[in-house]
Amino acid sequence: MANMTWAAATGLTKSAVGTCATGSDTFGSGATDGADVLGVDAFDLFIAADSGQTLSGAGTLECYVYNTVAARWARFKDWDVTVTTSAVRDAGFAGPSPGKGYPVLTSIGRVAFRPNGVTLSGGGLTIYLNCTVAQFGQMTAAVPV
Asked: Which of 24, 70, 85, 100 has the fewest CB atoms within 10 Å of its CB?
């Protein structure tokens, strides 16, 4: 297994894209992995199989959070996601507050997910963390294209 690669979503504030070569990659431990949740109210979680491939209905997305005070990552099992979607390329997950995404109660640190046994028809997996930031009383959301 190889480490996931994380990057900021192009042109999108506070959103991140994680790419993995397979459906089971090791979690990196870099201080800039995942999405920065400073000032973020909530985030949405989406996954996508490589072009021409599909999800096959198994596996888990394991959640990690970065503690900026301790300067290290920790598992956050409360937000783990079981992947049951199959025969499609993309899937989205509602989080613990359907319609509101994953609420960020303490908006410091970072959040990331690692695929563990996510089955694909072939190829790799991309994880999208689309963050929502309150701005002047209005919500602004980032959407991947």
From this structure: 70
